[in-house]
Design brief:
- The protein has about 80 residues and is an alpha+beta fold.
- The chain has helices spanning about 1-5, 10, 40-45, 70-75; strands spanning about 20-25, 35-40, 55, 65.
- The radius of gyration is 12 Å and the shape is globular.
């Protein structure tokens, strides 16, 4: 948790499972079919990635959560 709180994604990437990766879910429910999964290199580069990803859907409205990782981190982490 400290690595995530400190935004140390390079160090966090060393803990990512080599074949299963790591999954980010905006809420407690983890949708293994649709929520994004990242490999170690992706995790190391997350803060540099400006790609708009669809992270799931907002509770209540069902609208897609379309954010860069930096914006996702601010809102959901």
């Amino acid at each position: 948790m400290t690595l995530i709180a400190n935004q140390d994604f390079v160090s966090l990437s060393t803990y990512v499972h080599p074949s299963q990766g790591v999954r980010f879910s905006p809420y407690a429910y983890v949708d293994v079919e649709n929520h994004l999964k990242f490999n170690a290199q992706d995790v190391a580069d997350l803060l540099l990635d400006t790609t708009m990803h669809t992270w799931g859907a907002y509770d209540g409205s069902g609208f897609p959560i379309e954010l860069s990782f930096a914006d996702y981190y601010t809102r959901f982490v």
